[in-house]
Every structure is written in structure tokens, then in C-alpha cells.
């Protein structure tokens, strides 16, 4: 005698049950109704969830701190980086977009200059060389003096290193 597969037997039994009792009609509420039974919660999963929550809170704090620092740096740069004077711009002075490290050729000391300070430093370097020549233009001498005063007010430390050093 040929044996039948258990799946085929089960399907026949279910078909017979449907013929005898009719289709089972349940609503979604009936299907998802709370049975009263609870599953054990995996302690590792709870620890994982707690760790994820800590990390998300830490990320949020870091984002807030980073954005606050960015705003603070931007505000300080506006306060610290004194704008170039009108006479410098109108006189054709070149305004750099980025600052750089500058070295005093006599002492070997270095300092970091902002874009505005570097623009003025470049002007002062050329202006001083030109005023040392014979028959220096009095207007140029006056501009160099104004530039030194602006530089001293903008960055006293760099002024001491580069100009008075």
C-alpha cells in the first residue's frame, strides 16, 4: 500500500472540517486580541535598547555643542577680525580670503594671521620697503603708520612678533 504525504492528509482533513463546520471568519481585532500570555524579555535586548538610547542622547548633546561652538566661533571671528579700514580698500589694497602662518625673517618667530591681518601685513611689508627708499611719498608713509596702528589694535601679539620684533 502506498503511503500518503502528511501534508496531503492534513489538507484533506482541513477541507473536511470546512465542509462540516463552515469557514472560520474572524475580524482583525479577533486575530490580534491579547491572549494574556507574555513572552520573556531577553535581558540582552533590554541592555541593547538602553545603550541605543544613551548613544542617541549623546549624539544629540554633541550636535547641540557642535552647533553652539560653530556659532560662538563665528561670532568671535566677527568680533576679533577687525574689518579692513576704508582707506585700505579704496587705496587698492588686496583683501585675502584666507589667513596663514607668517614668520618674522629676523627673529624666526611665527604667528597665525586672519585673512584681514594677512592682507594688512602684506601691504605693510611692501609699504615699509618702499618708504625706506629715497624720496618716499608722504601719503604712503601716512598709510603705513595707519596700517601699523590698525594691525596693533587688531592683533597685538602678532604686532609684537612681526613689526616690533
Radius of gyration: 40 Å
The overall pLDDT, averaged over residues, is: 81
Distance between the termini: 111 Å
Considering DSSP H and I runs of 4 or more, what fraction of the residues is helical? 55-70%
List unreliable stretches of 5+ residues: none
Shape descriptor reads rod-shaped
- What is the total domain count? 2
**Individual helix count:** 7
Structure report:
The chain is mostly helical and 165 residues long. The protein has 2 domains: 43-80; 82-162, no CATH class. Helices cover 63% and strands 5% of the residues. It has 7 helices and 2 strands, in the order H-H-H-H-E-E-H-H-H. The chain has helices spanning 6-21, 28-31, 43-80, 86-90, 115-131, 138-154, 156-162; strands at 100-103, 110-113. A two-stranded antiparallel ribbon has the order 1-2. Helix 6 packs across helix 7 (156-162). The termini are far apart. The mean pLDDT is 81.
Short account of what is shown:
The chain has 165 residues and is mainly alpha-helical. The chain is 63% helix and 5% strand.
Task: Tell me the layout of helices and strands.
Layout: H1 6-21, H2 28-31, H3 43-80, H4 86-90, E1 100-103, E2 110-113, H5 115-131, H6 138-154, H7 156-162
Helix pairs in contact: 5-6, 6-7
What features would you highlight for this structure?
165 residues, mainly alpha, two-stranded antiparallel ribbon, 7 helices, 63% helix, 5% strand
Amino acid at each position: 500500500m502506498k503511503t500518503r504525504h502528511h501534508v496531503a492528509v492534513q489538507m484533506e482533513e482541513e477541507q473536511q472540517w470546512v465542509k462540516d463546520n463552515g469557514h472560520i471568519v474572524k475580524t482583525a481585532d479577533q486575530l490580534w486580541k491579547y491572549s494574556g500570555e507574555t513572552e520573556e524579555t531577553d535581558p540582552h535586548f533590554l541592555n541593547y535598547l538602553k545603550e541605543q538610547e544613551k548613544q542617541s542622547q549623546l549624539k544629540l548633546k554633541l550636535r547641540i555643542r557642535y552647533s553652539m561652538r560653530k556659532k560662538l566661533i563665528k561670532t568671535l571671528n566677527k568680533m576679533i577680525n577687525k574689518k579692513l579700514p576704508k582707506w585700505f580698500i579704496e587705496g587698492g589694497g588686496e583683501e585675502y580670503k584666507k589667513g596663514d602662518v607668517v614668520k618674522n625673517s629676523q627673529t624666526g618667530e611665527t604667528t597665525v594671521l586672519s585673512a584681514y591681518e594677512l592682507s594688512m601685513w602684506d601691504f605693510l611689508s611692501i609699504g615699509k620697503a618702499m618708504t625706506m627708499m629715497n624720496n618716499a611719498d608722504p601719503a604712503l608713509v601716512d598709510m603705513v603708520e595707519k596700517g601699523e596702528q590698525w594691525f596693533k589694535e587688531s592683533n597685538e601679539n602678532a604686532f609684537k612678533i612681526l613689526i616690533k620684533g
